[in-house]
Fold this protein.
Amino acid sequence: MTGGCGGDDGSGDRAEVLRRAQDRNAQLDLNLAFAVAKVYYVDHDAYTGFGVDEAATIEPSLTWSVATSAPSGEGAVAIAVAEGDFLLLLADSLSGNTFCVGDDVMSVVSNVEVRGIGKATTYEECEALPDWPAPTYST
């Protein structure tokens, strides 16, 4: 029975669908931000110097900030670490979850890109967090 006294109106299901959509948007923003950072890395052979102005020049559709001012709102990404071969980016979902993506270019491990659910201040912290799935693309 739906509606009425004690009935299930499905609002829990709608809230879960909304949360997942909000989380996916933050993850997509991070995927785009990560691609932007990789473009910078290829052009400069390091993440050093990758900041808000450089990122916005490459991809103005995102709202860029440094990690000292947490990202807020859809399309907002914070650069936490951009030094040498290390990168750490953060995005807050409108659901309240925080996501990170990091890169260690010189790692001897084959998969150097890490994705975490939670706030991190270093690549290692992001790596230790529960993983969120990498994007898959079909052809």
Remarks:
- The chain has a mean pLDDT of 82.
- The beta strands are 63-66, 76-83, 86-92, 98-104, 113-117.
- The radius of gyration is 17 Å.
